User: Fold this.
Amino acid sequence: MEKLERSLFRLEQGFELQFRLGPTLQGKEVQVYTNYPAKDHKFDRLKFHSLDWVYPNGQEDDCDKYCRLDLIVAGSYQYYFSCGDKEKVSGGYIVVDPVLRVGANNDILPLDCISSQTYLAKCLGPLDKWLDRVRVAKETGYNMIHFTPLQKLGVSSCYSLADQLELNPNFSLEEKHYTWRDVGNLVETVRKDWNMLCITDVVYNQTAADSEWIDLHPECGYNLVNSPYLKPAWLLDRALWHLSCEVADGKYAEQGLPALIQHEQHINALQGILWQQVFSKLRLWEFLQVSVDEAVEQFRQLLQAGSLGVTSRSSTDCRQQLKMVQDPQHRRFGNTVDMESALDTFAPHRSPSDIQECCNCFSRRLEELNSELYKEMNCHAEQATNCIVGNVVYERLAEQGPKLGPVTRKYPLCPRYFTFPFEEMTFEEEMHLMEQKDKACHFLAHDGSVTGNNPLRNLAESGSEVYLRRELVCESDTIKLRYGERPEDCPYLWAHMNKYTEITAKLFCGVRLVNCHSTPVHVAEAMLAAARAIRPDLYVIADLCTGSQLTDNVFVNRLGITSLVRDARSDTGSQEEGGWLSWFGKEPVGAFFQPSLRPLIPAVTHTMFMDGTLNDHSPIQKRSVYDFLPSSALVSMACCATGSTRGYDELLPNQISLVKEDHLYCCWNPEVQKCDQVNLKTGIMAGKMALNKLHQELAAEGFTQVYVEQLDEDVVTVTRHCPSSHQSVLAVLRRAVKNPEGHHHTDNVPPLFIPGQIEEVVLEARTIVRDINSDRRSDININSLPEYTAEIQEHIQLKDSKVVKKAAMVSKHSGVGQEILFKKFKPGCIIIFRVTLESRSREQLGALRRHLIQFSPQYQTGSLAEHSTPAVLTKPLMTIMSRLTLADMNMLLYRCDAEEREDGGGCYDIPSWLSLHYGGLQGLMSVLAEIRPKNELGHSLCDNLRGGDWMMDFISNRLLAKGGAVGEVGHWFQAMFSYLKHMPRYLVPCYFDAIIQGAYTTALEAVFKQMSSFIQNGSSLVKQLALGSVQMYGVGHCLMLPTISPHLKDVPHCLSEITCQDNQCCVSLAAGLPHFCVGVFRSWGRDTFIALRGLMLLTGRHLEARNIILAFAGTLRYGLIPNLLGPDSYLRYNCRDAVWWWMQCIQEFCTLVPDGVSILKCPVSRMFPTNVSDPQPAGAWDQPLYDVIQEVMQRHMQGIHFRENNAGPQLDHNMTDEGFNVEAGVDQSTGFVYGGSRFNCGTWMDKMGESERAHNKGIPATPRDGSAVELVGLCKSTVRWLVKLHNIGHFPHAAVTIRRGGQTYSVSYVEWDHKIQENFEKNFYISHDPHDPEEKHPQLVHKRGIYKDSFGASSPWCDYQLRPNFPIAMVVAPELFTVEKAWESLDVAERKLLGPLGMKTLDPDDMVYCGVYDNNLDNDKFNQAKGFNYHQGPEWLWPMGYFLRAKLYFAKKMGKETYDKTVNLVKNILSHHAVHLERSPWKGLPGLTNENGQHCPFSCKSQASSLAAILEVLYDV
Assistant:
């Protein structure tokens, strides 16, 4: 639940925005609110409404549900979330870009097409001449005109507005008075007839100091009445003014401070005078201090009145406890002390006679406090002194400063911070005015800025000391406006500025926010909302100087700023500007194709990139006249809006003064150039026209990709690339930071290799000196440098170029292209090439895009038909994919390195990086999914693709080697990759990704079509988990399932690569990747059947599930199925639980599969017809499955005792000799299945000690002998089911027969079922009654209200350990449990065992609990060494599935309210699994984690049982 106020989410109109739940919100009551206007409603930024949830699959699934907004209205919109009873948990902003329209037909002007020219309005002269002057913008290719404020100005700057509502009277003539209507007509003429838009500046933070309306409404500024905290700062300001006047009059000359300050001694004298004559006399600290005598007297009176408190405290405590009370009028010694805190701190502790002592103590404390406040004010004074002196040094001594000369009243010692609209008077007389409200209200604070200040902080509000500390860079011609927090705080000002905004919005399509960072955000927010109410598609730009992108984002988000102004000349070198181009370009050349539905990632604000602004010095003042043209070319090649300032293109030698400029702009004359007229021969205007035209074409035609390269110190190339046509426009420019006329520049420019074929030179230009009378100057107009002009050539062939020496086609590893050798490419030159792919590459790429259309329509543009299409590409890929079985899909999509190596190969290894996790497509997709959204083209995978065809050949050859349907997919890849091999290498990564992504999604679609409706209609999480079925089940090369009966139908066959014979090839389960997937460690009996229901039955793979069940049935021996499935001699029958999981799966098969009970009659080919038989071939000894089931039950009731074949260290080098003895049976008194001993471990908790050092070798960590709770549950489930089967005629056996003591006994399944039912809770439940007569070991009980983990263990304390096994019994045999007891025990398990992904395998309160598994650690700790704690704390995932299923089952029994809460809990827990699946490169769930969900490096990265168990939970939900 992030707070995203500083993250920018920017979208264009027409997008659909979806809000989806993150993992921490799933399973909770979440509502999304936004102030984006509902349909047919107007925008109100303070009015929020909720969004409805959309359920795409028709199920209330938190994984996929979303809220949506169709973004069709420009502006900034807020959203937030509520969660449960928390009204506002988190939120952020969405900025929707406006759509700008020009011309009579309202054609759209894309934001990246904008080329704007700024005009200083006062230089335009009367309105009737404006069209003649702004025509310059039209004729030089601009499509936007930006005017500085058109309002009546104050005495100085063009941004200092005297009246925000009145048009500047200078625009009118004596005989003609112009109005805003006339301006509007002109703007509309420009829009319709010239296809140009007009925007203007708005200033909200200040008004001119000579504004008449501020005199009538002084409450609109910060004065000493509404802001009395400014009194000390005002006093200091007046004292400094009087000091300045006295210095000007020579009063301090004898003290070393003359009016003309010339050296350091004068500065030192100034510092002394400031401290001695100003600060010491002002006694400003008194504004902070308390009157000690008055406070002590008040305190004494309270004590005498009987307000006695507690004992007095130490000195330190006193200072902390005393609370100051600020005087609201901010008078000297006006502050007081909160007397309650004083009484609490200083009350007498013996008797009333101690009152005097307490008053003395209180007085001393106040003196200490006043002393601290004195020091605080002195710190302010020291800073003020430094700032005053620093300002004097800059203005009068510094080389780069204005050097104002002597101190005078016009140029005082330091600027005034406040207005003083009265006649001159003495300082003492002024001090009296401070307390006269009718006078003090007119002492208004000037506006200004502070370097490094937090832009979100108002400099004039209480708590800011910048006026007192003299830190303000003051604008003495302005007054800072005081809005307050809402319109009611200053009604006139809000109404006045709102009307100003409305006038502007009616006339102009956009605004530039002047001093945006100094304008209160809530004010600008309200004003822009008013503007957008009139003009919804308002274009808003601003120049932020915050120095922080995150802080910029706050302004952009709240104000809906469309473009931020960036000045190319704020950096000194071309390399920095090139970096800006890369940053503000749309995307890099060769960027990946993004899917239409994708995560919204934080964006960068759209930019207006300027080659010059009004605040800039002319480049001639810092660089040279030859740098104008290449700087403009650099800016024009940016993939964003661009801008310039009138005068830049004309090569003005000096900066236009915003204050003093009184000349007018020249008018346009296309024919003859006079000194008061300009045309394309003026300056670089011809070059700028060509650049502007090119900039707009590139944006309109989709050249969205940018690449910037620094070839040399002053040579830069910028490439704009179109991702659909793959045309490029490449600009080469040579900067002229130093004037080439006086600085030696080498003519040697590095050769340039341009991939592809150069079609033309779009533009070649340079700045030259022409023979013209440069002495011509106009006294009325702004003058340029007439002797310089731009020489340009447009749309020429390479042979006609004046700067290209040679262009030759060459072939390099990166592709075919042209190598350019330059001649006379001097500083100030630019050349721009249009480049296409060479003909063969173009044909191949067009054909490839045509084949990619089947995956996305975005490839339609640029696609080409080909003369001869490979046969395999003439049909859709889905047609080929539909022929693959799910076993084939395992080969296509997955197979880890160990599986690949078993087949003689391996996963693809990327040099200098890593091997892919899978040989199949998922290995690539996991990497591409990480780098695609970020366009991480520098990734090693991309380097490998650009370097050669190795990865492509690996993919196709791997599949071709398999032949059949898989081989046909290999042919498809081979054909598709053949196109890639003939295109420029920089394009290979993005098209490789397009091919892989298209094939992958098609394969997944084909996979799901072969699965059950539960999967097809399921959520994204259901589908991701179901892919575990494909991931884990495959046909092994060296080890397949045991051969099943040849009499069975529908058994898959394939040609053995080893024997070249037609063999059965049934899929087998890899228990976990990458550790348990090959050889004898691939197929585990237990894991196979824990996972089979989820990964086979629920996914609809019924036939394959049948074959697995029957294959394991054929291996039955001693009444058990193998723990490990290997060659005959490696079959290990050392687990007691696998057979019961097998039986449970048969039951599930009969229940879930249509006509599932028919499996009971299927023939089973017994490998070992008897315990002592040699292995038999398939078909030699067949019997129906129901007889095999009966044998299992019979043997367990009879009792199982045997020693493992081949027992000894050659079978298991850790186990002791006794551990090879296997025992299992049924307790006749309880009906519980039991088995094992303290020397072995026959359940899933099967860790055998390995450490000789810790002396745990050969000792089972968790023997769980006796009756393990989950086995009792599984047995009960089977017996109950057999009773039911027999009753309906599907199972011929009603009982088991045993021999004991020479006699034969019969035990019916009904009797067995009843016996387990009667004895279960009696022996497994640990009641709250400490005197429970059924409890045999009360001294071992440490938790009550739970179920034992086992019954009858050789170590009785093990029975009482809290473990996550009892929920398994609850799921398979819920009838064994009393609902209330079950619910309570699940609650204990939730509190003690529940982890983020899995269940703790042991109670953390247990003395042997250890939650971190490290199989490599060998130390002296018995319970930890060599991973002895494998099941003694680490959190396993598959038990989580059973816990949640049990929770759901019994919650339903507890009532609807409990059930609904439980469903939400389950959803919230499963969200963590969804996140892990999404982020895991293995696309799986681990077998276990360390405590609290921490990563366990020794776990399988993807475990079959984990995937299956979580999928089963979703099926139950």
Residues 795 and 871 are 43 Å apart (CA to CA).
